[in-house]
Amino acid sequence: MKKEIRKKMLELRSKIPQDLKIRKDEKIALNFINFLKERHVKSVLLYASFGSEVDTWKIFEYCKKLSIKTAFPKVKEKFLEIYWVKERSELAKGYKSILEPCNAQKAQIDDIEVIAVPGLAFDKNCFRIGYGGGFYDRLLSKKKGLAAGLAYEEQVLDQLPLESHDIKVDLIITDERVINCG
């Protein structure tokens, strides 16, 4: 079931026209930044977006301007390690050619106030389906801060099939709304 949803959502996301995707990314970035500002957040974990994912680079630029300390994940065996990153030049291609920190200072999950979480599909109860590696489920099981799923409105479904290891996010930020499950 999850496999079919992954395939369908990847297809759906990749069919969003580029000009529309740019506008949607801008709305999501602004919604996310407003969320960070309202809560006076001082530290965030972003993911390095690739392919048809919600673009996180505008968010990274906003965070730098607002002096919000920003970390990025790096795959280490079956887990995500996190590192503080000040410039995009501190990232290099890593796991599956996704940009990861290199020569950066290690961060601790306890130091992160908000985690931006990628996903292929989310539901209205804030559960998500990722790419199937379980990296974010393992990371979110240790978090103290809030987890915010970043998604296009098209990626939000009524309900997803769940497994015992699935961990939900606290909220979902789309180009149209913020779904709060906290």
Rg is 15 Å
Reported for the largest beta sheet, the result is:
8 strands, mixed
The class by helix and strand makeup works out as: alpha/beta
Percent strand equals 25-35%
Strand order of the largest sheet: 6-3-2-1-7-10-12-13
What oligomerization state is this entry in? single chain
Low-confidence stretches: none
Helix content: 25-40%
The run of helices and strands is HHEHEEEEEEEEHEEEE
Number of strands: 13
Separation of termini? 27 Å
Number of helices: 4
Could you say which overall geometry the principal axes of the C-alpha atoms support?
A: globular
Global mean pLDDT:
94
What's the structural blueprint in terms of helices and strands?
Layout: H1 2-14, H2 18-38, E1 43-45, H3 57-65, E2 69-76, E3 79-84, E4 91-93, E5 99-101, E6 105-107, E7 114-117, E8 121-123, E9 128-129, H4 135-140, E10 146-150, E11 156-157, E12 171-173, E13 178-180
Parallel strand pairs: 1-2, 1-7, 7-10, 8-11, 10-12
Antiparallel strand pairs: 2-3, 3-6, 4-5, 8-9, 12-13
Helix pairs in contact: 2-3
What does the model show?
This protein is an alpha/beta fold. 27% of the residues lie in helices and 26% in strands. It is built from four helices and 13 strands. It has helices at residues 2-14, 18-38, 57-65, 135-140; strands at residues 43-45, 69-76, 79-84, 91-93, 99-101, 105-107, 114-117, 121-123, 128-129, 146-150, 156-157, 171-173, 178-180. The strands form three sheets. It has an eight-stranded mixed β-sheet. Strands 9-8-11 form a three-stranded mixed β-sheet, with helices on one face. Strand 4 and strand 5 form a beta hairpin. Helix 2 (18-38) packs parallel to helix 3 (57-65). It is globular and about 40 Å long. The model has no long low-confidence stretch (mean pLDDT 94).
